[in-house]
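pasting for ref
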Amino acid sequence: MLQRVVDTTTDMIDHTSSSQLANPTLCTDWTVKDLINHMVTGATMFAISAEQGSIPDAELGRLMSTDNVGTDPQGAWGTASKRALAAFEAPGAMEKIVKLPFGEMPAGVALNIAIFDVATHSVDLARATGQTVSDTQMLEGALALAHQMLGPDLRAPGIFGAEQPCAPDAPVDDRLLAFAGRQI
């Protein structure tokens, strides 16, 4: 599932032009570049936590306060996503307890959060750049994971907002965004 999310996100970022980086997104405080920076930062943080168990404070501060995209969103995402894939595929990675800025949890739970978060942001990016996420099975899978693991503890400002109303028969990308707290 992580590979499918990474592939989808890579496709979205690869088809984002430099002229679209200042576009607004459904994440109201972020431009397209800010959104990509968040995904690059997140992939790097999840990778470090899977590799080391936690993110050293100095590294966390650097990641959270830096433009991790620069002038190469595609390259930055490629590096971060490949590192995350390798970290979660490493022997023993899924047996670890990892510490992220929002809590300590089994690596499998962290992986599910990453899948949901990045899948949601892929749809955010698609909407902001006039693209469409075509892998609806991946989106259904990410939404199913979210329903299993997203509790009130993660429904907080800066993490995931309150679920928004959405028709149960709406397209999966709308249901995913509404579950993540987006006004659609």
